[in-house]
Amino acid sequence: MSEVDPTDRRNAPALSLHVPEPDYRPGDTPDFSKVVVPPAGAAPRPDTGAPARETFPLTDTLVRVLDDEGRPTGPWDPRLDPETMRKMLRDMVTVRVFDDRMYRAQRQGKTSFYMKCTGEEAIAVAAAAALDRDDMNFPTYRQQGLLVARGYPLVDMMCQIYSNRGDKLHGRQLPIMYSDKPHGFFSISGNLGTQYPQAVGWAMASAIKGDSRIAMGWIGDGATAEGDFHSALTFAAVYTAPVILAVVNNQWAISSFSGIAGAEKATFANRAVGYGIAGLRVDGNDALAVYAATRWAAERARGNHGPTLIEYFTYRAEGHSTSDDPTGYRPAGEAQQWPLGDPIERLKQHLIGAGEWDEHRHSELVKAADAEVRAAQKEAEKLGILPEQGRENIASMFDDVFAEVPWHVAEQRDQCLKEAGL
Amino acid sequence: MNMIEAINSAHRVMMARDPDVVVFGEDVGYFGGVFRATAGLQKEFGKQRCFDAPISEGGIVGTAVGMAAYGLKPLIEIQFADYIYPGYDQIVSEVARMRYRTAGEWTMPMVIRSPYGGGIFGGQTHSQSPEALFTHVAGLKVVIPSTPYDAKGLLIAAIEDPDPVLFFEPKRIYNGPFDGHHDRPVTPWAKRPEAQVPDDYYTVPLAKARVAREGAELTVLTYGTMVHVAVAAAEENGVDAEVIDLRTLVPLDIAAIEASVKKTGRCLVVQEATRTSGFGAELAALVQERCFYHLEAPVERVAGWDTPYPHAYEWAYFPGPKRMKLALEKVMAD
Ligand SMILES: Cc1ncc(C[n+]2csc(CCOP(=O)(O)OP(=O)(O)O)c2C)c(N)n1
Question: What's the sign of the alpha-carbon dihedral A27, A33, A34, A36?
Fold first, then answer.
């Protein structure tokens, strides 16, 4: 420090740092009345080719379609056919059941780790429904709904989670870090934010080649603080890349609330404004709003009108992962207080109101999803669970470092086999 | 104390002694860090001195540079060493060279703590040992403790050091020493003498190695979790090995290395990191430069494989007693 006490130096007030704090901590009773929830149907819907500037007011509100009674209203109502909505409902229920089973499998010691997306199911599922099947996703670890919605076999997902003989990634990745090119699902990285500029690059490549496919990049609210987020927005803006950039704002990044990523000062959708790209802020627990906004951004990208940043506003109802205990940093019942409700309940209520669904069919659906997930689990476990990882595949550890195994890696492979007594 | 408690205690002691020490990083404030190393500090010292940072390692290190320039002593946490890379440019191009490029006008007295290493089923992005990427950079000190007692004493010494120090914590031994036998239960630190950690201030000097096990036949140079693997391997295989726990990689205790190798005439270097261009290569080169005429066998290396860290087969990746045994036999055979 300097020799002079800074507080003696001049007749100026002492500065102090502002460190954001969430409104509620363990033991408090959460009350989300401060969260502004505009009425469904109130947000205007610009033309998909409109100048980005026209969307800027939409970065401060919430695009909502379903009202409190589950009725769709306003210009963003995508007027989906019941079959599509029932498929979305089925996918969301499947994701929830899948998450619960895999969470339990981790607790039973069958694998090392798991991450749920409870409360956020509408986001990945409805976005998948709004994209074309051959558009490419650069996801985070909380978009398992993309794979489920695109029909990726549950058994394959589970084999990855168990790192077993059926794992197409040969036990190299952490559970839930899927990768599947045919399903338009880019490899998940443990390093936050890296996929964001990659999504922009894929979209740029599609434009360079005169293709018609678009890319969608995904990131959490916390990870928007990474430099990669800002590089991605710059590149997307500069080259008018055909990309959708999604921020899933589930309010929490492990123990740090969204204020630590800047949410006190501006919405995440607001970030679009500074880059001059289109921005939308969307009720992430409203499957129809998620669908409509994603569809809007996809049409915009496909029409060569450029990128859209979408903030899906939601709440992470469960722990960050199986290694996290959220009761250490937030009130236990917070998820139940979340003013945007539960995404599955809201879509179900809408379909019932529209006469396209009923409680009986819903409980049959849950039962069927449960049976499907259980059957898949049985299949997957036939191929092994993590602690049973045998010796038969250890040589595979040395493949794919390079296209061909170089001498030093080959030597080490031999040494490893010798060490294992093989 | 286990190693986490010892590290926590070092924070507490130094925050109390030195009002310029500030602690920040992802989740370190209210929650006290995902490994709990900073638990309770915000409550005790206030939000101005211990706070949560945005998820931006480049931002964390870059702002620490500004704080150090002002005259504070930032003690920052990178949640996992695997995530130090977004902060790499600031560390390598700025932190490391500031004293040099300004002829001492600006200095960077900071400590960058980060849990590193494998053996916890972390897969390829929660298991890396990146120390060699930093020992290669002029201007950085690199410290790796292997016991709770050392962790506290070395961390305090690092905070008091006028230069930037990277402090890598072997997370596999946070709760207890690990001998590399994945099929055996780990004994907690509490049962060990190295867990007798005083509550108050003491230091373990930087740049001084420790003899973890005395021996006459062979010198094992190692650090971090591998110290425990090496000691166990020597005992299991009946080799009278002297295990040197380096503790500081830069600057290295060259005197201790030379003395031991000249005494034993044989040398094995052990690192958890991927083998090629690892810190073990530097050790092997130094030993042959300085002790060549005392060596009775070529210097041998034990290391992680030259592949990323696989989730499912980490028991076969982690350098354990079997890999040590083969290497010990080889060095002792000549
Ligand atoms: C570069 C990097 N830094 C830190 C971490 C550790 N980490 C993993 S997840 C996470 C929180 C991410 O929060 P957010 O982006 O909001 O996504 P969410 O988990 O809420 O979906 C952190 C800090 C990491 N994986 N990568």
Answer: positive
Distance CA A91, CA B122 (A): 29
CB A83 within 8 A of CB A133: no
Closest-CA residue to B203 (of B259, B140, B248, B245): B248
pLDDT in tens, A267-315: 999 999 999 999 999 999 999 999 999 999 999 999 999 999 999 999 9
Which among A171, A226, A420 is the nearest to B310, CB-wise? Answer: A171
SS3 B114: strand
CA distances from B289 to B254, B267, B277, B303 (A): 12, 13, 17, 21
Q: Which residues pair with A256 in a beta bridge?
A: A253
| CB spacing of B31 vs A170 below 8 angstroms | no
Sign of CA dihedral A116, A120, A123, A128: positive
Instruction: Give the pLDDT confidence score for residue A389 in this predicted structure.
Output: 85
Counting one residue from chain A and one from chain B, the pairs whose CB atoms sit within 8 A come to: 148
Ligand 1 pocket, mutate which of B24, B34, B60, B79 (most atoms under 8 A from CB): B79
What whole-number percentage of chain A has pLDDT above 70? Answer: 98
Write out pLDDT tens, residues B65-100.
999 999 999 999 999 999 999 999 999 999 999 999
The beta-carbon neighbor of B123 closest among A190, A223, A418 is: A190
Per-residue pLDDT, A392: 79
Which residue out of A7, A17, A168, A172 would a mutagenesis test of the B interface target, given it has the greatest number of B Cβ atoms within 10 Å?
A: A172
Residue A192 Cα: closest atom of ligand 1: 26
User: Phi/psi of residue B176, each to 5°?
Assistant: -175, 155
Residues of A in contact with B125 (CB under 8 A): 174, 189-191
Q: Evaluate if residue A10 carries a pLDDT over 80.
A: no
**Could you tell me if the CB of A221 is within 6 A of ligand 1?**
yes
Task: Print the SS3 string covering chain A.
Answer: CCCCCHHHHCCCCCCCCCCCCCCCCCCCCCCHHHCCCCCCCCCCCCCCCCCHHHHHHHHCCCECCECCCCCECCCCCCCCCHHHHHHHHHHHHHHHHHHHHHHHHHHCCCCCCCCCCCCCHHHHHHHHHHCCCCCEEECCCCCHHHHHHCCCCHHHHHHHHHCCCCCCCCCCCCCCCCCEHHHCECCCCCCCCCHHHHHHHHHHHHHHCCCCCCEEEEEECHHHHCHHHHHHHHHHHHCCCCEEEEEEECCEECCEEHHHHCCCCCCCCCHHHHHCCEEEEEECCCHHHHHHHHHHHHHHHHCCCCCEEEEEECCCCCCCCCCCCHHHCCCCCHHHHCCCCCHHHHHHHHHHHCCCCCHHHHHHHHHHHHHHHHHHHHHHHHCCCHHHCCCCCHHHHHCCCCCCCCHHHHHHHHHHHHHCCC
Residue B182's closest chain A neighbor by CA?
A387
Mean pLDDT of chain A, nearest integer: 96
Kindly state the greatest CA–CA separation across chain B: 60
Top residue of B51, B55, B67, B126 to mutate, by most chain A CBs within 10 Å, is: B55
pLDDT (mean) for B118-146: 97
Ligand 1 and B225: CB distance under 6 A: no
| Per-residue pLDDT, A7 | 60
Using a CB–CB cutoff of 8 Å, tell me whether A255 touches chain B. yes
Confidence at B204, pLDDT banded by 50, 70, 90: very high
Is B59 a pocket residue for ligand 1 (Cβ < 6 Å)?
A: no
pLDDT at A3: 60
pLDDT in tens, B214-234: 999 999 999 999 999 999 999
Q: A23 to each of A28, A251, A264, how far by Cα in Å?
A: 9, 12, 11
Nearest by CB to B31, which of A113, A171, A255?
A: A255
